[in-house]
Amino acid sequence: MSTTILSFQNRVVIETLHNEGRSLRYIANYLGFSKTTIFNELHRLNSEYQAGLAQTDFERKVSQRGLMVLPHNPLERRTLMSTTILSFQNRVVIETLHNEGRSLRYIANYLGFSKTTIFNELHRLNSEYQAGLAQTDFERKVSQRGRKSSLTKNLKHLIEEKIQVQKWSPEQVAHVVGIAYKTVYNWIDQGWLDIQLPDLPDHGIRRHRAKEKRGTFNYGRSIEERPHKVETRQEFGHFEADTVLSGKRKGQAVATFVERKSRLTIVKRLHGRDSQSMTQAVLELASQLQDKLKTLTVDHGKEFANYQTIERRTCTQVYFAHAYSPHERGSNENRNRVLRRFIPKGVLRRFIPKG
Q1: pLDDT > 80? residue 279
Q2: Which of 28, 49, 223, 277 lies at 20 to 30 Å from 328 by C-alpha?
Q3: How far apart are CA 101 and CA 21, in angstroms?
Q4: Are 46 and 60 in contact (CB under 8 A)?
Q5: Does the model's pTM come out above 0.85?
Q6: How many CB atoms lie within 10 A of CB 259?
Q7: What is the rounded CA–CA span in Å between residue 282 and residue 264?
């Protein structure tokens, strides 16, 4: 009886019982406070007592004293019979009136809900109804709503084995399992799979691509001028080219050439990651393929700066993809990832013969 600090829940009970016409003594005994405390509380406002307004007034006055009060987040009383969402304040009123022996109809009319809603709420728990426990149960069930995940224990084990042990990509796993590859990435991001981005075949570089440091240039024939027959992949001889770093020292690289129709992949060691070395590699390729090398699609890396020499000496048209558009050389990009997956940096040059 000595404490005089009322909670928001206490104020809701005071408002409810006061509207019921209960006496000061009754409300004081019900809550375990003195009659003076209840009297002062009911006269806190200059208008009809409302728990929400009383709590706001209390917090304002306390804040002026330099103290801190936890927020209570009161929700307005529901007035539409169609809604079935009860607030914590509503549950406190239900508990209070139920303990007062009020009927379902009375409580429903008091709060503006249907009798079915009140009945279901009073039977939410397997024990005597308590607003605090009922609110906790409500929040727990709400958090479990939504679409159920299709990630089963067996599927989780399969995906982790394919990616971590067999070095499959999320795209390959998704195709075999029959789900969207974006789903696999979402499960990784959400921590549902015991897989980190470094565990992926490309080490997550496709999501966190490093800034280009090799230099670029802005000349050359655009890919938009490339013949349509190249896009259809119906004719052999149209290649995509790129460089792949192969050693730990600066400049160690190999050139990769991928034929668009057959996906034939040719890898050549470069003496350096410069235009002279790449030009020599392309000339060697043209000599090996003779008239089979018809077009070459590349990016704007500086190693392709001597494209005019390549065109003149091989009679092959060189086309440049748009900046930041690796998908325009998709076959080459994919082969580079596969190559790096099985032959890591620092080891690749050992597998490529000189000359």
Answers
A1: yes
A2: 277
A3: 14
A4: no
A5: no
A6: 21
A7: 15
